[in-house]
């Protein structure tokens, strides 16, 4: 469960092949970016805990003051957070304190960008922070283009057609996966067509009605 910054630096040094592969001054900067927290839970590496980790203490009885060792675990929730740069939801385990920090920052992207590296004490947080920073850097290098209202309408129509095509493809994939066949729908369609033709051409009730009118 112990997770220390120097151990993380050693792991990184081992992966890149030693200090000789680094430029002068890079190792010192890396130590500054490494998390400075003492202990981090093992499961915290797979989520955003915002500094909230397991705590240890004693349970003291009211009568005799007897102490029993116990621990306090953080309130962890599994949430779907929307990322604007990724344009999709991210399913991640976060603490309630991290949720408040994300809401205060204005979103998951802003929280990861504003939080410095030495305070991002989990491997997952470091991974998403580096990834989103790189994507925002590429986004800043892109050229901004303005469209006319006609072009925007045409693009919106194209996106709508793409979504409909994707929906149809997913529906066909589900049908193939679950072995669904269109016989039932075909039979229902034929039955509806027969009912429509019967109502238009006249059924037995229509013939009886016509005979009663003729006798009258």
UniProtKB/TrEMBL annotation:
Keywords: Ribonucleoprotein, Ribosomal protein. GO terms for cellular component: mitochondrial large ribosomal subunit. Gene3D superfamilies: Ribosomal protein L28/L24. Residues 180-216 are annotated as: Disordered. One of its GO terms (molecular function) is structural constituent of ribosome. Pfam families: Ribosomal_L28 (PF00830). HAMAP family: Ribosomal_bL28 (MF_00373). Belongs to the bacterial ribosomal protein bL28 family. This is Large ribosomal subunit protein bL28m.
């Amino acid at each position: 469960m112990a997770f220390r910054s120097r151990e993380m630096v050693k792991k990184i040094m081992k992966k890149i092949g030693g200090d000789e592969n680094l430029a002068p001054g890079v190792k010192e900067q890396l130590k500054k970016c490494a998390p400075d927290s003492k202990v981090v839970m093992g499961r915290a590496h797979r989520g955003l805990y915002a500094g909230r980790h397991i705590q240890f203490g004693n349970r003291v009885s009211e009568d005799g003051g007897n102490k029993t060792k116990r621990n306090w675990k953080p309130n962890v929730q599994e949430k779907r957070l929307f990322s604007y740069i990724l344009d999709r939801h991210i399913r991640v385990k976060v603490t309630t304190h991290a949720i408040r920090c994300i809401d205060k920052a204005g979103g998951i992207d802003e929280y990861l960008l504003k939080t410095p590296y030495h305070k991002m004490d989990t491997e997952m947080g470091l991974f998403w922070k580096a990834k989103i920073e790189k994507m925002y850097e590429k986004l800043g290098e892109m050229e901004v283009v303005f469209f006319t209202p006609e072009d925007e309408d045409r693009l919106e129509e194209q996106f709508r057609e793409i979504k409909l095509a994707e929906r149809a493809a997913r529906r066909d994939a589900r049908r193939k996966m679950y072995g669904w066949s269109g016989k039932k729908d075909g039979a229902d369609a034929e039955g509806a067509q027969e009912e429509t033709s019967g109502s238009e051409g006249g059924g037995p009730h229509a013939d009886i009605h016509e005979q009663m009118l003729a006798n009258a």
